[in-house]
Prior knowledge:
Helix content: 55-70%
Oligomer: single chain
Number of domains: 2
Structural class: mainly alpha
CATH architecture of the largest domain: Up-down Bundle
CATH superfamily of the largest domain: GntR ligand-binding domain-like
Number of strands: 4
Mean pLDDT: 80
Amino acid sequence: MSAGPRFPSYVIHNYGCNIQAGVRFAYATPPGPPGSAVRPDLFPSLTDSTVTADDTATLFAPRALYQQVAEKLREQIFNRELEPGSWIDEQKLAVDYGISRTPLREALKVLAVEGLVTMKVRRGAYVTEMSVADVNQVYHLLGLLESDAAAQVARKASDAQLAELQALHDRLESQTGQRDAFFRTNEQFHMALLAAAGNRWTIQIVDDLRKMMKLNRHHSLFKQGRIEESLAEHRALVAALRRRDAAGAASLMQGHFSNGLAAATGN
Length: 267
């Protein structure tokens, strides 16, 4: 039997073990530029004082590395550091992150599956740009899925789950002057409602759709007065949930997304 291709030896500092030359490993990735350092401020769980890019091709770290690179790219996209429609300069990002292009490309594939990145033949990767039709379709689906979830919560949620939703709403009421905090708590409220509904497939789909919402240049909550309107809608929704009014909760949630769409599209 032939020995097959040989692979370099990879060392894991955090786990104290090696993969010797000749041992195959599915997630092994080529090292970055010699002597370059993985950015500890970007990927703290993968780095320590002795780790360089040469050490990132390890038994466990490569998979974790591309996942963390994907998360960093999401942050840059959501923060508009990488604008919708813009070309993603892989070489520059690899240098900025202190990694090779292999985990970066794996991360881009993850984001392409999520819809945040569009891969163009012979042109590279671009941040996805939402059309008006895209925004309409995303809000339509969210309205269907979350109105169904609201009905389920009204029917079967525990008192503790309803109390959690009330607490999140109360936090929203106190954050009207803190836009970023308001956005985070608003998303936590919606995801907590989905968790209480108990359908993991709905949670997975909505999580992806909400990522796409963040690509929209005209976020619904940016519209003047929309935060106050959204709060009033949440207030009525929480009251319907606490009354165990399934039909009312579903209707209010559907209206919440219809109003959000109108704000996001300027209609």
